[in-house]
């Protein structure tokens, strides 16, 4: 199924440079069409998107009963896909964070009414966020090309762990916690645009095994790649590359004071037609 | 969306969101230009103006359905407009489910969703833009065909149609999807006799882990096709609800109109027990766990499925299969995979495509455009009702289609 999906066809790219180029092009396109005085730079935008990716996970985690990790992954994927095509001066990361969460909850059957969705927010924010989420919905869907089906790495993760337990009598309880923790960090990086979910899951397990001193290579050669002599070598290479991306990524989060400065700068340069507080906003978004 | 729109070309990789991909090879040679445009990546949803709306053919749960042609390729499609007015909750979850589920499914007996288009509102109208779902076009729907006295399916063609229906259901169920709106008007049939199950507006993926009982809404499925467990308030139902619907549809192939036309839920239950026998713990042990079982009083009835259907249906294997589908206890109802193994399909006459019968039909036998069956005149024409926790039911109209 994954092989025929839009996820594979339209949202996986050959390398990091390719992804960066898409983002940069989207940024340039919007800066050219709407030229603010003191625009947010591309680097600042990247930092802000990164910050809000993390924030999105935090936001989704306050609901009870807990939002399933696969649903959070869908929201996160939507959020990051948007900025391959759009720029923050149009679609502000903060607005998109709420919009993507609401859309993902609906798509992945985490049933909430809009009022229940807003309830976790401070009272004074609720009506503006509600207005934002509903009015941006079609814009967001359009930016995603309505390709709403996302394959999360959590399913292959649990599949692999079960397989290890059943076919290789591996003790997986500790490994499960550790891998899930690793996954929660790696999905914040661009690996989601580089590798299919099964490989992202394998990486989480492989690295966690290393940390716990579990020999996973025997399982891999015997159960996963028994008929592909080259498979093992390739898999390890993919795992290493992913792990390297995560290591690089981890040093680039913003402190509290830093992101607020960028957010403020963005507030001043954003396109008012896309600002839910602006009177022109509603009409613009009705046109999609 | 994610798809090769023309299964004949074996061109698995081209970009689906482009109109030329609707081009049928039969209409024109597959030129180099065509190949180029097929492979071209278009960003964003396309504008609906690439299609020429020609005729309104239906009224769905959440919007109108049109027959349209791609302006460039002349490929026929069905456009389903997603109704957006009065949606407090934003884009209807039923439409999101349909989009997502159809993006995840691909089967020759499940209607293909080619892509999603949008319309822009102009400066001069104050309307909101809308989203359209673009489907493969099928010439007929089963309800329309059955209401047309000119259409007479011989037994071997009925077998082929029913077998395709079971294949569709079996595929859905193996992917953990419930259709939840089985009825003759949601079954489309092409001129070539290919069956396509459609309208996934009420479909949903169901939880596979049985950690805790599910709490799905039981306000689903058009009343006449609604399974007894739903009518008794079950919220942890599963695949058998679709198979009850198939049983009703299968009988309808001979009776030519819906077999259990209740007016309200209790009347529907009365009709069911008249045909299928009393609902009690002897035939259905778990029924006492259902919320409404203790609250209803039904007369003692004997089961008359075989007795009543034999004179109309004739074929004993057909009657036997219907008998196994219209079983009150969902846990004893036949599954789609078991049904595909049934002797009905392996006994003489063997299934043959309905193409022969359909080829000579001049007009589209859609229920909406066809002469109305008497049942449509009644004021209580049933509608599927879903009031999920999301409250998306606002603005749902009666569906005739």
Structural notes for this entry:
Chain A has 288 residues and is mostly helical. Chain A has two domains: 2-150 and 254-274, Orthogonal Bundle (Cyclin A, domain 1), CATH 1.10.472; 154-249, Orthogonal Bundle (Cyclin A, domain 1), CATH 1.10.472. Chain A is built from 14 helices and no strands. In chain A, helix 8 (154-168) packs antiparallel against helix 9 and helix 10 crosses helix 12 (231-250). The longest helix of chain A is centred in the middle third of the chain and has 21 residues, at 123-143. The two termini of chain A are 31 Å apart. Chain B is of the alpha+beta class and 401 residues long. Chain B has two domains: 40-136, Phosphorylase Kinase, domain 1; 140-391, Transferase(Phosphotransferase) domain 1 (Transferase(Phosphotransferase), domain 1, Orthogonal Bundle), CATH 1.10.510.10. Chain B is 28% helix and 13% strand. Chain B has twelve helices and eleven strands. In chain B, helix 8 (305-313) packs across helix 9 (316-325). The radius of gyration of chain B is 22 Å and the shape is globular. Chain B starts with 31 loop residues before the first helix and ends in a 42-residue tail after the last helix. Mean pLDDT of chain B is 79; it is low at 1-31, 33-42, 122-126 and 371-401. Classes of the chains: A mainly alpha (288), B alpha+beta (401). The A-B interface holds A 1, 4-6, 9-10, 85, 102-103, 106-107, 109, 111-114, 133-134, 137-138, 141-143, 145-149, 286-288 and B 1-3, 12-13, 15-17, 41, 43-45, 84, 88-91, 93, 96-97, 99-100, 103-104, 106, 115-116, 118, 120-121, 126-129, 131, 204-205, 388-391.
């Amino acid at each position: 199924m994954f092989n025929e999906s839009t996820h594979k066809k339209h949202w996986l790219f050959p390398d990091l440079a390719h992804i960066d180029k898409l983002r940069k092009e989207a940024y340039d396109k919007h800066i050219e069409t709407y030229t603010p005085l003191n625009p947010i730079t591309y680097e600042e935008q990247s930092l802000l998107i990164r910050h809000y990716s993390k924030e999105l996970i935090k936001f989704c985690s306050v609901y009870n009963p807990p939002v399933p990790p696969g649903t959070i992954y869908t929201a996160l994927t939507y959020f990051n896909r948007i900025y391959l095509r759009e720029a923050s001066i149009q679609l502000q990361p903060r607005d998109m964070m709420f919009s993507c969460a609401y859309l993902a909850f609906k798509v992945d059957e985490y049933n909430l009414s809009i009022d229940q969705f807003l309830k976790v927010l401070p009272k004074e924010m609720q009506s503006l966020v509600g207005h934002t989420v509903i009015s941006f919905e079609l814009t967001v869907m359009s930016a995603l090309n309505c390709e709403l089906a996302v394959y999360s790495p959590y399913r292959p993760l649990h599949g692999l762990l079960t397989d290890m337990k059943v076919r290789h009598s591996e003790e997986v309880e500790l490994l499960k916690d550790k891998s899930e923790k690793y996954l929660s960090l790696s999905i914040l990086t661009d690996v989601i645009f580089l590798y299919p979910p099964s490989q992202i899951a394998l990486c989480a397990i492989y690295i966690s095994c290393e940390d716990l001193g579990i020999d996973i290579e025997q399982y891999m050669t015997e159960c996963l790649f028994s008929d592909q002599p080259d498979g093992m070598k390739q898999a390890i290479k993919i795992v290493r590359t992913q792990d390297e991306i995560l290591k690089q990524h981890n040093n680039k989060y913003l402190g509290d004071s830093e992101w607020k400065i960028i957010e403020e700068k963005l507030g001043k340069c954003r396109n008012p037609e896309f600002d839910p507080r602006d009177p022109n906003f509603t009409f613009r978004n009705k046109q999609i | 969306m994610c798809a090769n729109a023309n299964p004949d070309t074996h061109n698995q990789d081209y970009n689906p969101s482009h109109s030329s991909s609707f081009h049928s090879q039969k209409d024109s040679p597959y030129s180099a230009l065509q190949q180029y445009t097929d492979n071209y990546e278009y960003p964003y949803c396309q504008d609906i103006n690439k299609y020429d709306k020609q005729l309104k053919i239906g009224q769905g749960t959440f919007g109108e359905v049109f027959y349209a042609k791609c302006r460039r390729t002349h490929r026929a499609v069905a456009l389903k407009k997603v109704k957006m007015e009065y949606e407090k909750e934003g884009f209807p979850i039923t439409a999101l489910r349909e989009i997502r589920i159809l993006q995840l499914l691909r089967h020759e007996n499940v209607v293909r969703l080619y892509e999603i288009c949008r319309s822009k509102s102009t400066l001069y109208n104050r309307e909101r833009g809308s989203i359209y779902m673009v489907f493969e076009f099928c010439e007929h729907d089963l309800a329309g065909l059955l209401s047309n006295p000119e259409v007479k399916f011989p037994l071997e063609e009925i077998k082929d149609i029913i077998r395709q229906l079971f294949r569709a259901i079996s595929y859905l169920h193996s992917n953990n999807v419930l259709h939840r709106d089985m009825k003759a008007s949601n079954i489309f049939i092409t001129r070539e006799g290919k069956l396509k199950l459609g309208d996934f507006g009420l479909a949903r993926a169901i939880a596979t882990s049985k950690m805790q009982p599910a709490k799905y809404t039981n306000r689903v499925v058009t009343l006449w096709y609604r399974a007894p467990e739903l009518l008794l308030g079950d919220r942890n139902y599963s695949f058998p609800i679709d198979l009850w619907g198939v049983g009703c549809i299968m009988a309808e192939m001979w009776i030519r109109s819906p077999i259990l036309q209740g007016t309200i839920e209790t009347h529907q239950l009365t009709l069911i027990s008249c045909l299928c026998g009393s609902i009690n713990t002897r035939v259905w042990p778990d029924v006492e766990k259902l919320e409404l079982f203790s609250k209803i009083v039904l007369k003692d009835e004997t089961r008359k499925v075989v007795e009543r259907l034999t004179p109309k249906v004739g074929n004993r294997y057909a009657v036997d299969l219907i008998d196994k589908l219209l079983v009150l206890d969902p846990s004893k109802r036949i599954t789609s995979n078991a049904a595909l193994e049934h002797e009905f399909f392996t006994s003489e006459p063997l299934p043959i495509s309905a193409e022969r019968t359909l080829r000579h039909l001049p007009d589209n036998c859609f229920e909406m455009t066809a002469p109305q069956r008497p049942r449509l005149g009644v004021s209580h024409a049933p509608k599927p009702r879903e009031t999920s926790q999301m409250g998306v039911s606002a603005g749902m109209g009666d569906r005739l289609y």
